[in-house]
């Protein structure tokens, strides 16, 4: 996909910053004001501290260090930063919409599952529409502006055929035996030396480690609530299952190319030492109500749809949320043995690895890409979820809009963040 980022995006930024082959804007008005370019450049630098290193290198300042941009820089800028930092920067919103449509095309090409109908109909139509708008906005059908219609713009039209011939982007390294040649992941020996638990294949926890430490009352209550929702126990049993002292871990690693997440309470973020924050995650949510969808991580878990109605029965549904990982706790849960009607054991004593998370309160979502935003410092009460429900790391991009400080929570496109285990 260097076609898009090293060429198309690079040329678009040159057009936006009046640095494209001596051309003016003609009959359009797509150039950014110098102050806007400076603000965007500053936002790029600021986002480097809150973007996990697993996403890639820090994006240099667009205004003063663009000569340092690589294909990776353009990729991170266009897919993560630009939809946030370019918003409301143009004199006409159609130019921002045009750029976001290109990002949507790129994300569509990186989907883990792509149907022939999607490629032949939806994706092909999206690309044709985008190229036609590009010609209208930048070429303007004037011979002296023909230099805007470079070969790489036309090459976009062939992407659907290339996908149909070679397969989805994420499968190319497997189909052509290029797994090792295209593997740019940074695998460290500490993953092999990490602590593993039998019921959690492909997961290990890493130092810093507190072998036996007490937990705060709020965390204990959250664990009790997790046990009540996840196992066949009553409130009294849930309270007695939790030991007085638990084992605490500062990092968790998903092996085979997965993310490595840091608990912010044990692994301190340091701006002075240029530490990149890797504590916000996406989760398969396990919250009490729809208003509690809060996290820097992405996760998902089961939620009681009727939590706000005291007299209604519990009705669980799975949702996605975002949170900040605080720490991982480990303990042996002496659960009662439970069997089903066929005599199969459905519950028995086991060691649990639980993530202590601080959900973030989602304030809004962008219309075009659905990017969630939250206001700085706005968190829900601490919750506890199974580490299997942690989905992936997310980056926090500062929102340049005026008013209370907000953050956009951005995740990588499917094929950019997928592990080898998922591909296989």
Please outline the helices and strands.
Blueprint: H1 2-16, H2 34-48, H3 71-85, H4 93-109, H5 116-139, H6 151-155, H7 159-166, H8 172-175, H9 189-192, E1 203-213, H10 217-230, H11 235-241, E2 246-254, E3 260-262, E4 280-285, E5 297-304, E6 316-333, E7 338-339, E8 345-347, E9 350-365, E10 372-379, E11 383-386, E12 390-393, E13 395-398, E14 406-410, H12 414-417, H13 420-423
Antiparallel strand pairs: 1-2, 2-3, 2-6, 4-6, 4-12, 5-6, 6-9, 7-8, 9-10, 9-11, 10-14, 13-14
Instruction: Evaluate the radius of gyration.
Output: 24 Å
Instruction: Show unreliable segments.
Output: 286-296, 418-424
Helix content percent band:
25-40%
Roughly what fraction of the amino acids lie in strands?
15-25%
Distance between the termini: 22 Å
H/E series, N to C? HHHHHHHHHEHHEEEEEEEEEEEEEHH
Rounded mean pLDDT is 85
Tally of separate helices = 13
Shape category: elongated
The largest pleated sheet is described as: 12 strands, antiparallel
How would you describe what is shown here?
This protein has 424 residues and is of the alpha+beta class. The protein has two domains: 2-174, no CATH class; 194-393, no CATH class. Helix content is 32%, strand content 24%. The protein has 13 helices and 14 strands. It has helices spanning 2-16, 34-48, 71-85, 93-109, 116-139, 151-155, 159-166, 172-175, 189-192, 217-230, 235-241, 414-417, 420-423; strands spanning 203-213, 246-254, 260-262, 280-285, 297-304, 316-333, 338-339, 345-347, 350-365, 372-379, 383-386, 390-393, 395-398, 406-410. Strands 1, 2, 3, 4, 5, 6, 9, 10, 11, 12, 13 and 14 form a twelve-stranded antiparallel sheet that branches. α1 packs across α3, α4 (93-109) packs antiparallel against α5 (116-139) and α5 (116-139) packs antiparallel against α7 (159-166). The longest helix is centred in the N-terminal third of the chain and has 24 residues, at 116-139. The protein is elongated and about 80 Å long.
